[in-house]
Amino acid sequence: MNQTVRSFEVVALLALTAVTESLFANYLPVALYLDLPLIFTLYVGWYSSPPRGAVCGIGFGLLQDAISGIYLGLNGLTKTLMGFGASYLSKWLLMEGLVARGVLIGVLSLADDLMVVGIRALLGQTIQLEIWLRILFGIPITGVAGGIFFFIYDRFKFPEKDFSQI
Amino acid sequence: MIALLQRKPVIPLAALLLANLLLLSVQVRNPENRLLIRSWSLFVFTPFASTVHFVIDGISGGVTRYALLYRAQQENEQLRAENARLGVELAQLRGIDALLSNRVENGSLQKRQFLFDTYLAPVIWKSAPFYAHRLVVNGGTRQGMHKDDAVIVPEGIVGRVWTTTPFTAEVELITNDGAAAGAMLEDSRLQGVIQGDGSDTLRWDFIPNYESVEVGDIVYTSGTDRMYPKGYPIGKVVQSQKGLAVYRDIRVKPFVDYLRLEEIMVVVSN
Residue A124 and residue B30: Cβ atoms within 8 Å? Predict the structure, then answer.
């Protein structure tokens, strides 16, 4: 199996994003500490070419913006960079371990949040304390959840082959 | 196309980032309640427009200032001529005003006789002062000069046209021996003949001893010689004393420094 993310998978992840983000936003706001669109973006970018990662990133980002009710393009811009960057990172880094992936996703989550905050500041918006708290709690949550998601999805998508019977 | 994007992935990235920025800019307003896209477009295109304007202005300016420098020189000559003409008119009007200050009746009618046209001509040669008080100017009959035309500068009279060629003219300074002009005092209207004698001052003849002429009095042209325009300054009285005969001995220091003349104005029509 070719190690790539197919288009229908991307569509499915987009749909999952829409559902979960809507549910979280309406019924479980605390769950928004988890940046699920970022995890999906990184995953798609990790197994895609840089342009495809960027395109998928803008999709996840705009979806997140639309559901969150903030300016369209805010997360779209950062997720575009994240998808693009993840594609390059996959070529430079060998991240098979769960912890290593979790740490990397946490770092990228911090970078993504800082970019969002920076853009909002540039747009003249006040950066409230809640935003910093969200970043503070969101980084480990997203990192851990991302590491687990990568592990499970990889196991599901690329099952380890058992050569012991050969 | 896809292969190109694969080889240069920065292109789609830049396009997507730009799309995001545009998306943001059409939603967000700045403190002046203007859309960011308008502010950003102004911010982006103003330097471009300024640069274009700077380049075009620089090119056109360079062409007009350097490549077409002959126009600047022409304009410079015109401005200098205009400046000199205005100076002459100013001096003349001051003289007229001084002379007519106590003759306000029919003033406008009298002032008409002072109007004249001039031609600005650079001095191209001067004779040695001890030999002859003459100079040659770059302008002749082609420019409308004639023999006995008055030569003036804003400070006062210079002399008259002595001889002419089509392109040059020789001017006799008023200080030359034998040169003369009708003159009058500003206040007393006392008239006489002012004459050069080869020195740096002029002799004012035919002023009776009983007339009062003080040192410092200003002498103007009287117009009686039908050469110099009336009311034009000549000089200042520097010596005035009773003579041995009927007339006073009066010396007048000309206002014009003849050694430093660079341009003169010829009265080409009265």
Answer: yes
Distance from A75 to chain B by nearest Cα, in Å? 9
Q: B134-137 and B233-241 as β-strands: parallel, antiparallel, unpaired?
A: unpaired
Dist CA A43 CA A3 (whole Å)? 12
Which amino acid does the sequence have at B118?
Answer: T
Terminal-to-terminal C-alpha distance of chain A: 20
Instruction: Say if CB A45 and CB A84 are below 8 A apart.
Output: yes
> Which A-chain residues 141-160 have CB contacts (< 8 A) with chain B?
none
Is A97 touching B (CB cutoff 8 A)?
A: no
Give the tens place of pLDDT for each residue, A64-105.
888 877 888 889 999 999 999 998 888 888 777 788 889 999
Taking only the tens place, the pLDDT of each residue in B193-206 is: 999 988 889 999 88
* Separation of CA A165 from chain center: 38
Positive or negative, the Cα torsion across B72, B75, B77, B83?
negative
B110 burial via Cβ count (<10 Å: 0-12, 13-18, 19+): middle
H or E stretch covering A1: none
Cβ B228 vs Cβ B182: under 8 Å: yes
Q: How far apart are the first and last CA of chain B?
A: 85
Predicted interface score ipTM higher than 0.90: no
Burial class (CB in 10 A: 0-12, 13-18, 19+), B239: middle
Q: How far is Cα A49 from Cα A78, in angstroms, rounded to an integer?
A: 17
C-alpha dihedral (B5, B8, B12, B18), degrees to nearest 10: -150
Tokens 């992936």 identify what position?
Answer: A101
**Nearest residue, CB atoms, B6 vs list A49, A73, A81:** A49
Interface contact flag, B13 A81, Cβ < 8 Å: yes
Q: What is the pTM of this model?
A: 0.47
What is the rounded CA–CA span in Å between residue B79 and residue B153?
Answer: 16
**A9 vs A159, higher pLDDT:** A9
d(CA B7, CA B210): 112
Rounded Cα distance between A84 and A111, Å, is: 14
CA distance A53 to B178: 105
Phi, psi of B209 (to 5 degrees): -65, -30
3-state secondary structure of B240: strand
